[in-house]
Design a protein that fits this description.
The complex is a heterodimer of chains A (about 375) and B (about 725). Chain A is mainly alpha-helical. In chain A, strand 1 and strand 2 form a beta hairpin. Chain A has eleven helices and four strands. Chain A has two domains: about 160 residues, no CATH class; about 110 residues, Cytochrome Bc1 Complex, Chain D, domain 2 (Orthogonal Bundle), CATH 1.10.760.10. The relative contact order of chain A is 0.06. By secondary structure, chain B is mostly helical. Chain B folds into two domains: about 475 residues, Cytochrome c oxidase-like, subunit I domain (Cytochrome C Oxidase, Chain A), CATH 1.20.210; about 180 residues, Cytochrome Bc1 Complex, Chain D, domain 2 (Orthogonal Bundle). In chain B, strands 1-4 form a two-stranded antiparallel sheet. In chain B, a hairpin with a 2-residue loop joins strand 2 and strand 3. In chain B, helix 12 runs parallel beside helix 14 and helix 23 packs across helix 24. The radius of gyration of chain B is 27 Å and the shape is globular. The relative contact order of chain B is 0.11. The model of chain B has no long low-confidence stretch (mean pLDDT about 95). The chains are: A mainly alpha (about 375), B mainly alpha (about 725). Chains A and B meet through helix 2, strand 1, strand 2, helix 6 and helix 7 of A and helix 2, helix 6, helix 7, helix 8 and helix 18 of B.
Chain lengths: ~375, ~725
């Protein structure tokens, strides 16, 4: 009896496998010419992905065929369930046909236009998902069948004396501790026994969902034209540029080296903070000069006027190692820090670096200095 | 049937147990020191005890010395009992033990000496890599000998994990360590740039998977049901989570490289496989925690079970967090901040640390035929450890979010709110103190734990050879009629080995093949040139000092990074980087384009001598020895030759004039320093390092310093 059952199973297996292979070769034929005879060949990598997708389709289809086959055999043995099975098989057949069509259409579509390209991709993903779904359904069906086969009597016996299981046991679909003798497996390792609890359903479906998510994610970002890292970057930059432009339209911040005026006391204070975290690295905390020159004496390499200092900070003097700060500090920041530097004149810090550059006579210096102490308005 | 008498080797278990807690204390202590170095830079003692050299020592000590010995202790104990057989060969056991300790000592010495490959968790140089391979093979022969001479028909789930661990670690170690030696303690990896990064993080991620996770899951499957006296919750779950875990884990490496110059498709694979990894990882946690069903009353009293419960819970937390961190938008926050550091310590301190101590507290009394010296002390250890983990992790989560939010703020004019990286560092420094405090608590707990263990050992006596008996395996096995299909492979260790290898090989092959073979994955940039000999020597100093530990060289395509560091990094910029230096953490700013910042040579000189002389808030270690040490230029020729072998386009004959070129460039830098008031010899190491720093990021602007001399141009 058993032998005949297995023989049948085997025969069916062979015939479905043959069918599946036929469909693979059909797909391969459809895909190959399309891949090789295009005006603008896709990059290696697109082709590679397409082959992956097609391979995945074929593998899933094969799995469906094999499982479907198992199911049919099971159904034959247990007569009353046959109707159900025919319905499933019908879905299966329709699906394999669609899959073939899609697989044939998709690589061809990928070459024509971007719209069709996307269409092909979405089609492929849908087919993959469908196939996957059918596979899960089949697997479930087989599982419940198998349960019916081997455990029908035991189930009945158990059901007779069933108690309400605890929430955790129901949640994990586990057999409660007091009944675990029923599901303890007959092996033991150094005294360790194993139970045959079912997989917790939330875990199992969570796993399925994560796989589904993975397929959708990868399909969307890598096949379906989802944004790449650089697309995201460009979008962010455009958005930022628009925001900055909008801000500048509202607030006139056109201070530059030509119209700079000394900042007020609050500005000089802000300038001190900026100086300490950005300039002190080279010029010293008290502007006494380290790598960069001393900024407190009368000698200046690139001019000591308010305008010149602003200009030096803004554009930098690259050959001398002075960075350009215009992309790092805002114009008002530069005004503040320029004003702070001016306010340091003559402070004579300790460890001052030797004077360098040309003597700068402050013609209007006294006036300006007076201004700063009386917190002149901008 | 005839019963065979034999004995279990407990001496080897004891040896590994001692090594575990001794190295555990060392690893934790070095961890505490490096945590303190971050807040008190004066604790850096150049040249051998700076953060850049100490941190790899910490990670290697914890991973390979503490957890490594923990694995061997647990495997040698459980495998004998699960196979009902003594370890196959006592001599191999001894060679394994002493060989591994030798590796650890060599690792400690060479890492502090600055011999490093700079590949994280694989820093050791090639002679030690060879030694590791030999010892690992000896370990493999010994466990397989034991398995093949077993007296139990089927392999228990713990052994599946041991087998997968052994074969995968072998594969990872060999593939990632492939390098061409320059000298006895310097080699260049055969991979460069993007490819090197991909291989390294395939390795790095799976070192976590197959050194810190699978063997420990194996230990959990043995020691947890043993201590709880409960059957394992679900055999089916074991099967499914074992195979899916080892299959999926391998693919997830690229999640360490999200938003880098790695091709997008590989990044996406890293993301999706990490998400799919969640359920298989939790399969282990569920099977562990639900095994305790009906034994929770014991957990209250039994300190060993308490350790296990926290360990398994920490495992669940870390393996939930991992997939979340693999989502690109989350990873953008975590990648270069302290979030990753917090994440790995949940795993290391919680999962590995607590499981190890749980096993030690259970196993030492067993093999010494006594009771645990003090349950009270064990409980104190447990609570100190738990608090330590919290004090360690929570501040770092806080720090990560704070720094990320500060780094990304702009003024409405479109410039950075905090252009100076140090401002963001100062904001999180208090969190670093708290973290060090957490580490201190954990270490304190461990010290108490070790005292407890030593006292236990003193009150007992080792049963070196524990008598056991079992019937031999029947010659022919008749399967039960209705046995689970998986039972077949459980009695076929060789098939199990091959099956595991096949399953773990797939992911790596599919990710590597296109990256190595398809050129469009790493588009070349014509203006990117090889390093000059001086820069190459400088780069090797950069590697030696472990700069990559705190400085990345990878500008991600984000507005705030481009504003801060310059144009985002391109794959083609790294094609001559053997090894890549992308780093994984930014304790300091990114250096990918530091050369384009026009910092004066003299600034670099003073900064290396004492970082706080130029930036008060800096926590960088000082490197005064670079100013004193002469550069070893005897290696230049060999280095150029190895690079030529690796495909770096130095013209033929360049190796012979390399040192002339080197001196020419060095004299230029020396002269510039002199102009800025710094008198030094052109032969010093600092000159080479400055040359390298000044080169970084420039090529893409067509400002490469590499020139082929006219004499060679004609010859070629």
């Amino acid at each position: 009896m058993n032998n005949i059952k297995y023989l049948n199973l085997f025969k069916r297996g062979i015939s479905t496998m043959a069918l599946a292979f036929l469909s693979i070769s059909a797909m391969a034929q459809a895909a190959e010419p399309a891949a090789s005879t295009t005006a603008t060949p896709p990059t290696d990598y697109t082709t590679f992905i397409w082959w992956l997708v097609i391979a995945a389709m074929v593998i899933l289809l094969l799995a469906i065929a094999v499982l479907g086959n198992v199911l049919v055999t099971m159904a034959k043995i247990s007569a009353p369930k046959v109707k159900n099975i025919t319905a499933i098989l019908l879905v299966l057949m329709t699906l394999s046909v669609t899959a073939e069509e899609a697989a044939t259409a998709a690589p061809a579509a990928a070459k024509t236009s971007s719209l069709l390209d996307n269409l092909g991709i979405y089609l492929a993903i849908t087919i993959l998902l469908l196939e996957f779904f059918v596979l899960v359904m089949l697997a479930r069906k087989i599982y419940s069948f198998a349960k019916g086969f081997f455990a029908a009597e035991e189930e009945k016996a158990k059901a007779a004396k069933l108690k309400m299981p605890s929430f955790l046991d129901r949640f994990n679909s586990s057999v409660s501790v007091d009944k675990e003798q029923d599901i303890i497996l007959d092996h033991e390792y150094d005294g360790i026994r194993e139970l045959d609890n079912d997989l917790p359903p939330w875990w199992k479906y969570g796993f399925y969902i994560s796989i589904l998510w993975a397929v959708v994610y990868f399909g969307y970002y890598e096949l379906g034209g989802g944004p790449t890292s650089l697309d995201e970057y460009n979008t962010a930059m455009e958005k930022a540029d628009a925001e900055v432009a909008a801000y500048k339209a509202k607030h006139v911040v056109d201070v530059d080296e030509n119209n700079i005026l000394l900042a007020d006391a609050a500005g000089i204070k802000a300038g001190k903070t900026i100086f300490e975290s950005n300039c002190a690295v080279c010029h010293g905390k008290e502007a006494e000069g380290i790598v960069g020159p001393n900024l407190t004496d009368d000698y200046w390499l690139h001019g000591g006027s308010l305008n010149d200092i602003f200009k030096t900070i803004k554009y930098g003097v690259l050959e001398k190692g002075m960075t350009s700060w215009k992309d790092i500090l805002s114009p008002t920041d530069i005004v503040d820090v320029t004003s702070y530097v001016k306010s340091l004149h003559g402070t004579k810090p300790a460890n001052a670096k030797a004077p360098d550059g040309e003597l700068y006579k402050e013609e209007e210096a006294s006036a300006v200095a007076a201004d700063s102490t009386t917190a002149a308005a901008k | 049937m005839e019963i065979e008498k034999f004995s279990y080797d407990n001496k080897i278990v004891r040896n590994f147990a001692y090594a575990t807690f001794i190295w555990g204390l060392v690893g934790l202590l070095v961890g505490l020191i490096v945590a303190l170095q971050l807040v008190i830079p004066d604790l850096n003692f150049p040249e051998y005890f700076t953060f850049g050299r100490m941190r790899p020592l910490h990670t290697n000590a914890v991973v390979f010395a503490f957890v490594g010995n923990g694995i061997f202790m647990g495997v040698y104990y459980s495998l004998q009992r699960l196979c009902k057989a003594r370890m196959w060969n006592d001599t191999l056991s001894a060679i394994h033990f002493w060989g591994w300790q030798l590796i650890i000592v060599l690792a400690a010495v060479t890492l502090l000496m600055g011999f490093t490959s700079s590949k994280e968790y694989a820093e050791l140089e090639w002679p030690i890599d060879v030694l590791i391979t030999i010892i690992w093979v000896i370990f493999g022969i010994n466990i397989f000998g034991t398995i093949l001479t077993r007296r139990v028909q089927h392999l228990y789930v713990a052994i599946w994990f041991y087998i997968a661990t052994w074969i995968t670690v072998a594969m990872l170690h060999i593939v990632n360590s492939l390098a061409i030696p320059v000298t006895l303690f310097k080699s260049y990896p055969i991979y460069a740039g993007v490819q090197d990064a991909l291989v390294q993080w395939w390795y790095g991620h799976n070192a976590v998977a197959f050194f810190l996770t699978t063997p420990y899951l194996g230990l959990m499957y043995y020691f947890l049901p043993k201590a709880a006296g409960r059957p394992v919750y679900s055999y089916r779950l074991s099967i499914i989570h074992f195979w899916s875990l080892i299959f999926l884990y391998i693919w997830a490496g690229p999640h360490h490289l999200l938003y880098t110059a790695l091709p997008d498709w590989a990044q996406s694979l890293g993301t999706v496989f990490s998400i799919m990894l969640l359920a298989p990882s939790w399969g282990g946690m569920i099977n562990g925690l639900l095994t305790l069903r009906g034994a929770w009353d014991k957990v209250r009293d039994d300190v060993v079970l308490k350790f296990y419960v926290v360990a398994v819970t920490a495992y669940g937390m870390a393996t939930f967090e991992g997939p979340m961190l693999s989502i690109k938008s989350v990873n953008a926050i975590s990648h270069y901040t302290d979030w990753t550091i917090a994440h790995v310590h949940i795993g290391a301190l919680g999962w590995n640390g607590f499981l190890t101590f749980g096993v030690l507290f259970w196993l030492i009394p067993k093999i010494f035929r006594t009771e645990l010296y003090s349950r009270k002390l064990a409980n104190i250890h447990f609570w100190l450890g738990t608090l330590g983990i919290l004090f360690y992790a929570v501040p770092l989560y806080w720090s990560a979010w704070t720094q990320w939010s500060l780094l990304g703020q702009f003024k409405p004019e479109g410039v950075l709110m905090y252009p100076n990286f140090l401002d963001t560092l100062s904001a999180i420094l208090p969190m670093y103190y708290l973290r060090a405090f957490g580490g201190f608590l954990y270490l304190l707990g461990a010290v108490i734990g070790v005292v407890n263990l030593v006292k236990t050992v003193q009150q007992g006596k080792l049963e070196a050879n524990e008598a056991a008996e079992a019937p031999p395996l029947p010659k022919e096995y008749k399967p039960h009629s209705n046995e689970h299909w998986h039972r077949w492979i459980e009695r076929k260790p060789v098939q199990m080995l091959i099956g595991s290898l096949v399953v773990v090989a797939i992911g790596g092959i599919i990710e590597f093949a296109p990256t190595f073979l398809i050129e469009s994955n790493v588009p070349t940039i014509a203006s990117v040139k090889p390093y000059t000999p001086l820069e190459l020597q400088g780069r090797d100093i950069y590697v030696r000092e472990g700069c990559y530990v705190c400085h990345s060289q990878m500008v991600r395509p984000f507005r705030e990074e481009v504003a801060r560091y310059g144009e985002y990094s391109k794959a083609g910029e790294f094609v001559y980087d053997h090894p890549f230096q992308w780093g994984s953490k930014r304790t300091g700013p990114d250096l990918a384009r530091v050369g384009t910042r026009n910092l004066p040579n003299s600034w670099h000189y003073n900064h290396m001598d004492n970082p706080r002389s130029v930036a008060e808030q800096s926590i960088m270690p000082p490197y005064p020895h670079l100013l004193d040490n002469d550069l070893d230029i005897r290696t230049t020729k060999k280095k150029i030759q190895v690079m030529q072998k690796l495909g770096v386009p130095y013209p033929k004959g360049y190796e012979d004039i390399a040192n002339d070129e080197l001196m020419k460039q060095a004299k230029g830098i020396q002269a510039d320093l002199k102009m800025n008031g710094i008198t030094t010899s052109e032969k010093k190491e600092i000159i080479a390092l400055i040359a390298y720093m000044q080169r970084l990021g420039k090529d893409i602007k067509g400002e490469s310093t590499f020139r082929i001399p006219a004499s060679l141009k004609n010859a070629n």
